[in-house]
Amino acid sequence: MARRTPKTHTPGPDDAPMLLDVEGLGRLIALLAEEGYVVLGPRVRDGAVVYDEVRRVADLPVGWTEEQAPGRYRLVRRDDEAVFGFTLGPHAWKRSLFPPRRRLWRAERSEGDGAFTIAEEPVEAPKQAFLGVRACELAAIAVQDRVFMGGAYVDPVYAARRANTFIVAVNCTQAAATCFCASMDTGPQARSGFDLALTELLDDDRHVFLLEAGTETGRSFAARLSAAPAVPEDVAAARAVVARTAEALTRTLDTDGIRDLLFGNLDHPRWDEVASRCLACTNCTLVCPTCFCSTVEDTTDLTGAVAERWQTWDSCFTMDFSYIHGGSVRKTHRARYRQWLTHKLASWIDQFGTSGCVGCGRCITWCPVGIDLTEEVRAIRESADIPPHTTSANQAQAGR
Amino acid sequence: MQPPTPLQTAAHPMTPVSGRVLRRRWETDDTFTLDIEVAGGRPFPFAPGQFNMLYLFGVGEVPISISGDPDDPSKLTHTTREVGVVTRAMRRLRPGDTLGVRGPFGSAWPVSEAEGRDVVVIAGGIGLAPLRPVVYHLMRHRLRYNRIVILYGARSPEDILYAKELGQWSARLDVEVLVTVDRAARRWRGNVGVITRLIPRAPFDPENVVAMVCGPEIMMSFTVLELHRRGVASERIHVSMERNMKCAIGLCGHCQYGPHFICKDGPVFRFDAVEDLFRVREF
Ligand SMILES: Cc1cc2nc3c(=O)[nH]c(=O)nc-3n(C[C@H](O)[C@H](O)[C@H](O)COP(=O)(O)OP(=O)(O)OC[C@H]3O[C@@H](n4cnc5c(N)ncnc54)[C@H](O)[C@@H]3O)c2cc1C
Ligand code: SF4
Ligand code: SF4
Ligand code: FES
C-alpha cells in the first residue's frame, strides 16, 4: 500500500462501514473486473481451497469448510451457505507477488567478438485484486514487503506487482486447529494493510458482510457499491464473531525471548529428534507465506548463442542450497530443520525487525509427517539445559 | 569508510554489466589472475575485501573477490582457483573474451581502523587473493601503520600464490613475511607445517594489533584460537566468510549465517560478530 499515492479525500458519509449482501459481494467482484483488475480469490480445486481467478460469488467455496491437523487437510461440507467459512489452503498470496519461476533476462552472443548483449524480461505487473486475504496473510505480505522492498536492494518485480495489487481482506469467522495467529499477534482481526475488509455475518435472519475501508482507493470502491449503511450493532456483531474466533484458537506459540531461546540451544538434542522425522521434502517452505528464498538457473540453448537467467523459488531444506566447493554446509536434516526454524523465529527478527512466522499453520498442515513448529519450540523451551544468553547477534549490533 | 556501491546499468539488480579480459596470468597449476575491463573501460572503484559476481555466458555466476590494487580503479583484477563448473569455464577465458560482472559487493577489511597499529595479515591458500588489496594498501600507505606481518600458508611450494610479490614484500625491511607449506620436497628451505605455528613467533603486539584472516573455515578457526592464546581480542580480529551466493544483494537467502547475510553484512566480519556461530557445526 505504501507505494500508492493517496488520493485527496473529504470525509463524508462514505466513510461509515456498510452492509453488503451476497449480491453486493458479486457487484464488488464485477466492479473490480470492470476497473481492469484480475480478481484472485479462493476456489475449490483438487480437494483443497486454492487461490485463482474468480468471476462471480459462485466461484468461491460457498458452503465449504475444512478440517486441518498436523499432516492432514480435508474439505467438508458446511450445513450453511457461508462464503468464507473456511480458513487457509496450501496457496499463499506470495505466488502472485513473487512468481515461483520467472525469466530475468536473455542474452545473445554476437558471432564476431563473442560479446553478448542482455535483454531484460519486461516486468509484468497486471492490476490484480486479492479477494479473501486473512489477517495472518496481511501480516505475511507486510513481512515480505520488508524483505523485498525494505533494504538497500528492491526486487523490482515484487515492487511493481505489489503497487498494482488491491486487497480485500476477510476476517476469520472460525479458526482451523492449526492456526495460532493470536500468539504471533497477527489475527484473527484484520487491522491494517487492506483496501477493503469484509466480515461475514450469517444467521437465521440474514446473510451479509460488514464492509470497511482501509484506504482511499478502498473507500472510492465502497462508495460505488450502493450498499446499505451499517449500524453500530452490525459493527459490534462483526467484532464479536472475530472475538469468538480468537477464543476458539487452540494452538499457541510462546514467543517470549524466543530469539535467545533458540540461539542459546543450537546444540539441543531436540534437533536430532525432529531430524529423525523430517523428510526434508521442502513442503513447509513452499506453503509458508513469508519464505522468500530463491535461486537462479543460468542456461544456454543448443547452439550456445543464446543464454537465459531464470529465478525460481528455492528451499533451505535442499542439499544444494548451502553447497560450496567441498560439499554442502548443512548436510544433515538436523542442520536444515534448525536453519529453517531459527531463521523463521529468531534471526528474522535481527534481519527484518519482525518474526518470520505469522501463525498461519500451513507448515503444520502440509508437512507429510505432521511436524508442528509450535511443538518443537515447546519441547526446547521445556527442556532447555543451556540458559538463554547474549548471543552473537547482540554483540554484532554492538560491534557494527 | 563506506565501501563503494555497485555499478548498475540495467533495471534489474541481477543483470550483469559486460566485461572483457585484458590479460590472464597463471599463478599456479590451477589458479589464474584475470585483468578485466568493465563496460568499455569504466573505472571500477572498490574497497579491499569486496567481491564481484562473475558470470560466464550460459554457465553460471560465482562470487570472486577483487584481488587488485584499490588505489588503481582503472583495472579490475580477480584471482580464481579452478574447482568446479563455473571456475573451469573461467579458466578457459583468454584476452578479448567476455564475461559478465556485477559488483562490487560486501563489506571491507578495516584498513582505516588499523591505522596507528600493528597489522597481521593471515591467509591460507586462495585466501591470499581477497587480502592482496589490503597488502597493496598497507605498502602504499606504509607510514600510517606500525609493524606489518604477513603470514601465508599453502598446500605445497607449487601452490604458493603471488610468489614473486611475496618475495618483493619480504625483501622490504619494514615488512615481515612468513610462509609455510603443508608438505614439501627436500629442496624447500622454508617452513613446513600448519600456519598456526607461525603465530606465536610473529612480531606484533597482541594488545595493539589488527588481525585480518582469510582461508578455509577450519584454518580460520584454529588461527583465531592461536590469536586468542597470544592475547589478541576478538574485536581486533577480522575474518572473511564464505557461503553459497546466488544474488549478492541480500534477496536470495542463500548466504545466511544466523542473523547475517554474508553478501551484504559481510563477507568481512569483526570476529565477535560471528564468534558464537563459528563454534556451531553445520550452521
Ligand atoms: C565472498 C566470496 C569470495 C570468494 N572469492 C574467491 C576468490 O577470490 N577466488 C576464488 O577462487 N574463489 C573465491 N570464492 C569461492 C568461489 O566462489 C567458488 O570457488 C566458486 O563458486 C565455485 O564455483 P564452481 O561453479 O566452479 O564450482 P562447483 O563446485 O561446480 O559449484 C557449483 C555452484 O556452487 C556454488 N559454490 C561452489 N563453491 C562455492 C564457494 N566456495 N563459495 C560460494 N559458492 C560456491 C556456486 O553457486 C557454484 O556455481 C569466493 C566465495 C565467496 C562467497
Ligand atoms: S512458519 Fe508455518 S505457521 Fe509460520 S507463517 Fe510459515 S507456514 Fe505459517
Ligand atoms: S518439516 Fe515437514 S514439511 Fe518441512 S521439510 Fe521437514 S518433512 Fe517436509
Ligand atoms: S547471496 Fe543472496 S542473500 Fe546473500
How does this structure look, described?
The complex is a heterodimer of chains A (400) and B (283). Chain A is α+β, with helices and mostly antiparallel strands. Chain A has 2 domains: 13-248, no CATH class; 258-399, no CATH class. In chain A, 31% of the residues lie in helices and 23% in strands. Chain A has helices at 22-34, 94-97, 135-149, 156-163, 216-223, 232-248, 258-263, 270-275, 283-287, 333-352, 362-365, 373-383, 392-399; strands at 18-21, 38-45, 48-53, 64-69, 72-77, 101-109, 116-120, 128-133, 165-170, 196-202, 207-213, 228-229, 294-300, 306-313, 323-324, 327-328. In chain A, the strands form 4 sheets. In chain A, strands 3-2-8-9-10-11-1-12 form an 8-stranded mixed beta sheet, with helices on both faces. Chain A has a 4-stranded antiparallel beta sheet with strand order 7-6-14-13, with no helix packed on it. A two-stranded antiparallel ribbon of chain A has the order 4-5. In chain A, a hairpin with a 2-residue loop joins strand 15 and strand 16. The radius of gyration of chain B is 18 Å and the shape is globular. Chain B has 2 domains: 17-105, Elongation Factor Tu (Ef-tu), domain 3 (Beta Barrel), CATH 2.40.30; 118-240, Rossmann fold (3-Layer(aba) Sandwich), CATH 3.40.50. Chain B has a 7-stranded mixed beta sheet with strand order 10-9-8-7-11-12-15, with helices on both faces. Chain B contains 5 helices and 15 strands. In chain B, strand 8 (148-154), helix 3 (163-171) and strand 9 form a beta-alpha-beta unit. Helix content of chain B is 18%, strand content 29%. Chain B is α/β, with parallel strands linked by helices and 283 residues long. At the A-B interface, strand 6, strand 7, strand 13, strand 14 and strand 15 of A face strand 14 and helix 5 of B. Bound molecules: flavin-adenine dinucleotide, iron/sulfur cluster (2 copies) and FE2/S2 (inorganic) cluster (FES). One iron/sulfur cluster binds next to helix 9 of chain A.
